[in-house]
Every structure is written in C-alpha cells, then in structure tokens.
C-alpha cells in the first residue's frame, strides 16, 4: 500500500543508532571516548549528525546503543538532547550493553545490539525502524528513503553512496538490477560491480538500513538462535535478505540535504586521523563542501553557556587574529595568529603563537611562541612554550603520533613523556 501524500512516514518510524564502537583507527582520540563522541566542526560531536538528520526528518523516537567507553557520549546526549518529551510521544533512550539477555553476554554485533533491545523497541509501537551508524558526517532526509522503502515494498532498503569503481574496493558494494533491487552484496571486492548504465561508478553501502519492524523483529529472533552467525547486519542479515528476499538500494543523492552551496552530495567517514583532520579543515574553505550554516537543516548539539570569543593585542608580531578559521565561544586569541584552523570551545592561544591548519579540541592552552601546523590537539592539552610541530617529521615522530598523511596527533600523555625525557 502506497503512503498517502500528506502522511509523514517518519511519524511512524524510530531511529536506532549504533554508537558502541571505539573507532580504533582514530588512535588516541578514542582512548577516552567512543568514536561517535569525538568532537567535530568546532562545536558538535560526530553523533550529532545522525541524530540531527533523524530529528530534522521528523523522527521523534530514537535509541542509541552504546558499549565502548560510553560516559562522554552519554553525558553529551543527556546535556544536549534532553528536549524530547514523553507526553508528546517523543523518546530518546540510551541503551548501554547491560547483559539484558545473559549475564555473560554484551553486544556481539550490530544486529545483536538491536536484538537485545527488542522489548524496548516494541514499547515504541512503531511501524518502521531505521538503523543508523553514529559515526559519519552527512545531511540526509530519511523521510525520502522511508517513502521509497514503502513504495517498492522492500524487505530492506539500504542507503548507498555513488563512488568511483576504483575507490569502491574499500566498501561493501551492491550489485543492482535496472529497478534498483540488490542482486549481490560484496564486502570490499577486488573488482567492484558497476552501476547499471554507468561502468565507472559503484554503489557502496552507507550502513543505513530501513526495515518494517514486524519483518526485522522476526529476522533478529532467528539470528539470535543461529550459532554460526556473527550477529551483524552487513555480514549476516543483509546477505540473507539479498539472497532470499527483496533488498532495494537507495541512492544518497536522492535524499542528501543541501543548502545550495554544496556542489555534490557530502558524506564522510572520519575514521582515521587523516580523514578526521581533512574533514575539519575543509570547513575553513571559502565555500566548504559541507554547509554548517544552513538554518533549515541545523545540526543540533549541546549548547554550552560560554562567553563570546575574544581577540586581543594589536602590535606588530603580536596581534590576535584568525583568518579563514572557525573559532568557538570562550576562546581567547591573545596576540596569536590563527590560519585555516578550528578552535573548539575554551581554547587559549597566547602571544606570538602561530597555528596553521590545526584542529584544536576544547580547553587547550597554547603557550607563547608555539608554532603548530597540520596537527590535531586532543581536549585539555597544555602546549608548552616554544613547541614546534609540523615542520620536522623526524622530531614529530619522536614524541607524537604522525599519520601516513603527515598529520600530527598530540595528547597530554605524549607531552608529559616528552617533558620527562627532556628533563
């Protein structure tokens, strides 16, 4: 049955966000927090994008499954996403792995994280469930995908990126027929299948799935009893539906939200230090590929009550300036020069310091005469006077983590070890 034009399917849907992973490729950035809780864009956290997409799409029932070092994530959700009201039939539940099935069992996989909370999802009384990853940067209207799911009578609809074939080897890739039905699902294939009519492009999975809840519930119950299953959507459930059911591909370009400034659909997995740094620095472009200033599709987050940013000193060589940069509230640029950088909340940059293409997480203190370029600085770090980073690769590798792309990650423990060695 096709939906009526004036009926928003999102009102009958819930978003289930998988946010339990560490994201080990982000190295020390996830030593204290899960990947979805990592800061992004000067003000937000990565998970805010999936949650904001759901909220802006009209979804008012959400659940977040957490597991690895979830305190930072849970605290952020409690502070920034506490406006859901049960009396309006709105819910946002945090679902930590809590041995709900067996005392010895945590979440064994992405599908198991949903299966262990079947009773909670049942209490929502929803018709559709959207499974989302909590660790990607993008803007998307899930209502469009929901409507396509219903109109095609699919068992599952999978959000897909259009990527060049040579890059698709890093993704789970869909082979589809002319109608968009998925005929095969291949995990990181050496020879990715091309899209019909476009031999240079492939369809890669975004890890976004839409199900009818009744269908998904039965599928999860069967999977829980399968001793040979890894209890994962990508490894187990999706291939089974592709083989024996009806799986449809939904092109991200059909539901990507743009403000008019973006020239192409924007989606990023910021799962490595290089990718994280690049996606942040890209926001400093004159016309960035992702428009965070789109008031019609806001990225909701925790709105801290802090004073405005402040720039002081106006002397030659000691002028508080920020050029082509994003500077959050409670920052003080005191006689420092900041270029093509992001300063998150509460950063202090002191006289004669220079920053170039630096991603500086909250409450970092940068002492005088420091020179920092092409780097990521973790929260709460105290940069010592005169520290130089980004100019001598050998020196950087001696004390800090230097990525394949030459980006230097700095944490307080690294600086402490350096200080001890130099004493």
């Amino acid at each position: 049955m096709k939906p009526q034009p004036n009926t928003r399917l999102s009102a009958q849907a819930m978003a289930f966000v998988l946010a339990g992973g560490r994201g080990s490729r982000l190295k020390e950035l996830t030593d204290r927090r899960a990947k979805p809780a990592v800061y992004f864009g000067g003000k937000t956290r990565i998970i805010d994008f999936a949650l904001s997409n759901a909220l802006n799409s009209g979804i008012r029932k959400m659940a977040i499954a957490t597991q690895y070092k979830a305190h930072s994530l849970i605290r952020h959700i409690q502070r920034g996403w506490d406006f859901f009201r049960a009396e309006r039939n709105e819910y946002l539940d945090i679902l930590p792995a809590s041995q709900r099935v067996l005392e010895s069992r945590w979440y064994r996989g992405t599908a198991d994280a949903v299966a262990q909370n079947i009773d909670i999802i049942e209490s929502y009384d929803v018709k559709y469930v959207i499974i989302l990853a909590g660790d990607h940067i993008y803007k998307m209207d899930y209502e469009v995908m929901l409507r396509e799911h219903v109109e095609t009578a699919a068992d599952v609809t999978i959000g897909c990126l259009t990527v060049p074939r040579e890059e698709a080897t890093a993704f789970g890739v869909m082979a589809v027929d002319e109608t968009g039905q998925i005929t095969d699902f291949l995990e990181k294939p050496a020879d990715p299948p091309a899209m019909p009519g476009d031999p240079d492009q492939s369809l890669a999975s975004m890890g976004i799935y839409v199900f009818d809840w009744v269908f998904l519930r039965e599928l999860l119950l069967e999977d829980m009893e399968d001793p040979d299953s890894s209890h994962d959507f990508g490894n187990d459930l999706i291939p089974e539906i592709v083989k024996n059911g009806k799986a449809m591909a939904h092109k991200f370009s059909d539901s990507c939200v743009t403000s008019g400034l973006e020239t192409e659909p924007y989606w990023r997995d910021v799962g490595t230090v290089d990718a994280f740094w690049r996606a942040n620095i890209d926001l400093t472009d004159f016309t960035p590929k992702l428009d965070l200033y789109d008031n019609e599709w806001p990225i909701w987050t925790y709105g801290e009550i802090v004073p405005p940013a402040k720039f002081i000193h106006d002397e030659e060589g000691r002028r508080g300036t920020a050029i082509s940069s994003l500077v959050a509230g409670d920052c003080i640029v005191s006689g420092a020069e900041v270029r093509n950088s992001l300063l998150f909340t509460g950063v202090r940059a002191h006289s004669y310091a220079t920053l170039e293409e630096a991603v500086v997480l909250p409450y970092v203190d940068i002492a005088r005469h420091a020179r920092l370029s092409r780097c990521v600085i973790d929260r709460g770090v105290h940069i010592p006077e005169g520290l130089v980073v980004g100019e001598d690769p050998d020196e950087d590798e001696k004390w800090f983590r230097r990525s394949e792309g030459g980006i230097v990650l700095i944490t307080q423990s690294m600086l402490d070890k350096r200080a001890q060695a130099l004493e």
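Residues 213-224 form the longest helix (12 residues). The longest strand covers residues 201-212.
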